[in-house]
Design goal:
Elements (H helix, E strand, L loop, with lengths): L4 H13 L8 H16 L9 H13 L13 H7 L3 H20 L3
Helix pairs in contact: 1-2, 1-5, 3-5
Length: 109
């Protein structure tokens, strides 16, 4: 078993979720994909990762952070954050998820 099998699986799941069609809508799909990413990154020793991979993770985590958004009109800060993503943001998220998934899948211990 490879050390990064679990994150590779979670990022593969996230990538699949981000591919249309979106039965419950694109916002729901992004939310579910981010959950897969969070689980895949949980308790990972990032000190062992190279700078490029750490940068990808940091960038993705910035997208997954709802800081600066507040609840309003019955919507959570998280929902407002997801709805604020531009098409360019969504494309970058998809590319980050793909790149990280491919990197984790390619690593041997």
């Amino acid at each position: 078993m490879k050390y990064y099998d679990y994150p590779a699986e979670k990022f593969a799941n996230a990538r699949q979720i981000l591919l249309p069609p979106f039965p419950k809508g694109e916002i729901d799909a992004i939310d579910r994909a981010f959950m897969e990413c969070r689980v895949g990154l949980h308790r990972m020793n990032r000190a062992k990762l190279d700078d490029t991979v750490r940068t990808w993770i940091y960038t993705l985590e910035c997208f997954m952070n709802a800081e600066g958004f507040s609840d309003a009109d019955g919507e959570s800060a998280w929902t407002r954050k997801l709805k604020s993503l531009t098409d360019a943001d969504k494309q970058q998220i998809f590319q980050l998820v793909t790149d990280l998934g491919n990197w984790f899948a390619s690593q041997e211990v």
